[in-house]
Amino acid sequence: MTTSPFGRALCAMITPFDATGALDLDGAQKLAAHLVAEGCDGLVLSGTTGESPTTGDEEKTALIRAVREAVGDRGTIVAGVGTSDTEHTVRLARAAEQAGADGLLVVTPYYSKPPQDAVEAHFREIAGRSGLPLMLYDIPGRTGTRIEPATMLRLAEHERIVAVKDCAYDALGSSKVIAASGLAYYAGCEEWILPLYAVGGAGFVSTVANVAPRLLRSLLDAYDAGDTARATALHHRVLPLVERMMAAGLPGTVTAKALLGELGLPAGPVRGPLLPATAEQVRALLSAYGTATGERMAADA
């Protein structure tokens, strides 16, 4: 089995804001503590779900410090530091290390579409200038550039490149890298959690875990216990919520914040250009949430 350097069940945590849109550090601490108590081994901060494109460098660092204080050593913290600028990414990586992060999530440089030798050089530069282990984020649908399996295998030779958040939708490529390297592959798309885990994946980094952490954790637990029938049943059970949150036209940040608000947990508004969910969309989200978790909310009654 592949080791899980940051734990198995990681939540791609939203970044709470107050009513004015300012960073809500108290809310972040409350949400982080709740997620760890509900079964998350770790938290990924300032990823896409955490609205990294619209939070500043100082906000990202303050968020790490606040969450570290809240969870202590009860959960790992992986800080999203990826940008399209190698030097900027290095600065964010060093700031995250000083703020108390355990690891770094580094996405492929986006928009500029660097070739594979440049992609490899980018990741090596960051790994070589930071003291923290890296989780590479392979999501070509957003960045426009794949980390090709051959590139991934070369990068796996670096001592600080230890994991991958996998949103490439390439079962063959991912399986080949898992089989030939020590990289810990985390499913970054919830419908891929069980299939990837079954072929040697390390766990998940999930947006849906903001609202259903225990349900997703229980899927891994069932598989580890040898109860593959229960793991499959839980996979099927969570799919309608996954589809409503991640594939129904709204970004996961919007849907997660909408549900967290209904659950009475810190979330707040989204920052532009994102827009909040409509009342009709919230009702649909609550219905899917109730079906998956067995909890019925007032707006869904």
From TrEMBL:
The active site is at Y137, K165. It is an enzyme of class 4 (lyase). The record marks T48, Y111 as: Part of a proton relay during catalysis. Its EC number is 4.3.3.7. It is found in: Cytoplasm. One of its GO terms (molecular function) is 4-hydroxy-tetrahydrodipicolinate synthase activity. It catalyses: L-aspartate 4-semialdehyde + pyruvate = (2S,4S)-4-hydroxy-2,3,4,5-tetrahydrodipicolinate + H2O + H(+). Keywords: Amino-acid biosynthesis, Cytoplasm, Diaminopimelate biosynthesis, Lyase, Lysine biosynthesis, Schiff base. Pyruvate binds at T49, V205. Its main location: cytoplasm. Catalyzes the condensation of (S)-aspartate-beta-semialdehyde [(S)-ASA] and pyruvate to 4-hydroxy-tetrahydrodipicolinate (HTPA). Belongs to the DapA family. PANTHER family: 4-HYDROXY-2-OXOGLUTARATE ALDOLASE, MITOCHONDRIAL, DIHYDRODIPICOLINATE SYNTHASE. Homotetramer; dimer of dimers. This is 4-hydroxy-tetrahydrodipicolinate synthase.
